[in-house]
Amino acid sequence: MTDDDTVQTYPEWKAAAEAFATDPVPYGALLEHEWFYRAFGIEPPDLAPSVAEFQKRQLKYLSCFKAFEKWLLEEQQMALRSRHGVGYEIVKPSEQARFAMGDLSEQLSKNFRKAGGRLLHTRLDELTHEQRRDHADAMARLAHLRAMSQPKKVMSLPAYKGPEGQFSAPPGAQ
After folding, report:
1. How far apart are the first and last CA of the chain?
2. Percentage of residues in the chain with pLDDT exceeding 70?
3. What is the number of structural domains in the chain?
């Protein structure tokens, strides 16, 4: 019990889930960071008296937020899109697939660059022949995975000049 004789929900993110379920927010709405701090019952870190307290509040917020975000997606089928420095937008269902694939594409690109850098900047002169072969195989696998993850480029066929000198589709392409 607290000072005002109300029962607090634990973990704190569940209180935010209950508040959200009671008063749902429409698609496209922006939930500001302050909404989350209030809903989680956490004091904003910028009001913390010390660096240690600041970090403690940030960690608590992140822990609560990740659990709430998971609940929102799995139980309410609503995704959150970050709006840097402001909060999170509730993604409309018509945009959720594009959002999910865009996020995946960004993460894949980031991880391909990271792995590529690690492979590229290896001291090959310190590897045995077998280790060099494994390293070359890893580079080839990475290149193959990256190529598979890229959208396929469709090549158009050149125009076909028919027997009468007119352009048409090539034979058998109709």
Report:
1. 76
2. 82
3. 2
